[in-house]
Amino acid sequence: MRKAASWEDLTDNYLFCSKAVDPQYKDLRHFQWHWEKGEPVIVSNVLECTSGLSWEPLVMWRALRHVTNTKHGQHLAEKTIDCLDWTEGEINIHQLFTGYTNGRRDWLAWPQILKLKDWPPSNLFEEQLPRHCAEFISSLPFKEYTDPHKGSLNLAVKLPNGSLKPDLGPKTYIAYGFPQELGRGDSVTKLHCDMSDAVNVLTHIAEVKLDSDQLTVIEKLKQKHLEQEKRELLGDDQDGETNFHQPSGSNEVAIANEDGISYGSELIEVDKVKINQGDLLFGGDASDGALWDIFWRQDVPKLQEYLKKNFREFRMIDSWMYRSLRLYLILQ
């Protein structure tokens, strides 16, 4: 078990955690008990149940290049989002994956935080990366619910032919990032409300080393960004309207330097994150993998009330903040 939150009046305040190789992991009834309550379930080491296909970026690039050259000719440029200003651009996949490993900087030496936008599309994932698609399906826990093709308890699989079905994926979320928040341009997923239950599998993370000179430049730029944010927040006019910079791109899912895959089928958070075995109760070091901040269902009205009351404190706000994926809550 792992502690979920510090609620004084909550007796059942822990999340169900298991390993994919544990006998208890096979207990479908135990999972259903938590799922019916709307609780996230954590299953670690799911990739140990697969064939061991590498998720290294350049391995994926070589697989993609082979299929693309064979079937469609060579076109390996894809749309990306620059998380600093939400502008959309295009980059060669090989350059993107190289930057994932080695890092990229803009002309001011600020870390360039990029993420792929809807790549590859759900309907093309199996065609463009067939082996990785099969590897992902084989890693899914509780396949009765999570298998997008054969899940016996997956309602989306039971819809009749010709009906409008939800996008079950799978799809990748690939982005750059850092364990420390940069303040601007962080490739985090903004606050949002999922319209269906989902599975997330963390398949790869990589660390980009920064030297002391780079860290010094970043700290100076962070101060400039902080001053600019203060000026934006003080941009209220006399009518109570606030002038916010509107982003030009949408923010989807991005966790610090990781390739993850997700599809809307089932409420599970599955990750291959290192866990301190001596501190399972409170979790391990968040910098070891992905970090999900999940709110209880019963807290949604309180969260909406808080956002409506304090919306002027946030940048890049529109009328439906928690649906637009443009807002991220931090401890401050």
From TrEMBL:
SMART domains under this entry?
Answer: JmjC (SM00558)
Task: Alphabetically list the UniProt keywords.
Answer: Metal-binding, Nucleus
Q: Where can this protein be found? A: Nucleus
Superkingdom: Eukaryota
- Where does the JmjC domain start and stop, copy by copy? 148-332
User: Does this entry carry the keyword Thylakoid?
Assistant: no
Molecular-function GO terms, alphabetical: chromatin DNA binding; histone H3K9 demethylase activity; metal ion binding; transcription coregulator activity
Q: Name one GO biological process term.
A: regulation of transcription by RNA polymerase II
State the Gene3D superfamilies in the record.
Cupin
| InterPro entries reported in the protein's UniProt record | JmjC_dom, LSDs-like
Listed under GO cellular component are: chromatin; histone deacetylase complex
The record's similarity note reads:
Belongs to the JARID1 histone demethylase family.
Give the protein name, as stated in the record. Answer: JmjC domain-containing protein
Q: What species is this protein from?
A: Glycine max
